[in-house]
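> run fold Kynureninase
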Amino acid sequence: MSEDDARRRDAEDPGHRALFLVPPAQGGRYQECAYFAGNSLGLQPRAAKEALLGDLDDWATLAVEGHVEARRPWTAYHSLLTGPAARLVGALPEETVVMNTLTVNLHLLMVSFYRPRGERTRILVEESAFPSDSYAVRSQARYHGLDPDVEVIRTADPLGHLAAEGDKVALVLLGGVNYLTGEVLDIPGITRAGHAAGAKVGWDLAHAAGNIPLELHEWGPDFAAWCSYKYLNSGPGALGGVFVHQRHLDDPSIQRFEGWWSTEPETRFLMEPIATPPKSADAWQISNPPIFAMSPIRVSLELFDSIGMPALRARSLRLTAYLEGLLGEHTVVTPREPERRGCQLSLRVPDADGLSRRLSRKHGVIADSRNPDILRLAPTPLYSTYHDCWRAAEALRAEL
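> ok
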C-alpha cells in the first residue's frame, strides 16, 4: 500500500490527533513522530495544561479556602471523575473511584478480597503476568504466612485450571488485555468460571481501560483496578481507578484498610475516632486525593465521554487491521482475530531493544520493546493515523 493511500484513508477516517501534543521526530523526514507507545504512556491532551494551571491558580488565590471555594472545590474534586470513569468501564458510579496508583490499589483490594482459608489459598495469575502484578500477589501470599512459590499459580489456561483445581483457588487476578501480546482475555467467561469454582475474581485493566469496551457491572467481577497514564493519557504516574461490584458495597464483613477519606464526607470533619464508611467504592479510599494529579484525568475522561468507546473501538479495529496488513511476513504474536486483541500488535524480532532505538532515531517511529525479542506497536485510535502505520511498516522494512 502506498503513502498516498495512507493519506487518503486519513482524510476519510480522521481521528482526534489535533487534540494532542505529538512529539517531534528525532529522525527521518517528517516533523512529528509516529507514536506507537500509548500502551506505555499516552500523549498529552492539549487541554491538560490549561486545566492544571487553572487549579494552580485557585491554590495561589484561595490557599486553604480552595477546599470549598475553588472553581472545582478540592474536598469533592474526586467526585468529578466518578461518573465519566464509571461510564468508561461500564460500571455504576457508586462502584467506581479514582484514587492512588495501580499496584497500591491492587494491594488495597486484595486486603478485602484475598482471604485464604483452609485449602482455598491459591492466587491464579496469567503465565505472562505483568511483573508488578506478580510481585504484588507473591507479597500478599507472604503477608498471610504462605509460600508464594506454592500459592501463586501462573497459567496459560485459567479456565482449565479452574475446572481442574478451582476448589483450591481463593483469588483469580488476571490482566484484561495482556501487556506482552495485546490479547484480550475472556473477562466475562473467566469471571463466571472463577465464581462457579468459589473464588473471588479481580482484573488488572491497565491495558484495557480506554482500549476496549468494558461492562464491569454486568460481567460481575468482584473488583478491578486500572491506571490512567497509558490509553487514558493522564500523564506519567497518573492516578488509577478502582471498581468494586455493587454486591459488596453494603457488606459489613468485608475487611478494608481505612483512613481520612474512607468515611462519609458529612462526618469527616466531626473528627470522630471511628470511620463511617459510605456504601460505595469511596470507602476504599484512604488519603485525600492529590488535586493537581486529577486535572489531566478530568480532561482525558471528558474526551472519552465526548467521543465514546464504541467509536474509538471501531477505529481501533480499522487501524490495527491496516497496520497488520502492512506488516506482511513479520511474526506477529498478537491474536489474528480482531475481537481477541486491543490496539496493539506485538512482533517477535531479533534485538528488540536495538530495533526500537533505531526506529526512533533514524525514522521518527516510537515503539517500545520487551525483552528479549518483542517489539510492541500500539496504533491508538485517538491520535494515531494511517500514515503513522505506513511509516512504521516502511521503517521496519528498512531495518529488517
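DSSP finds 15 helices and 14 strands in the chain.
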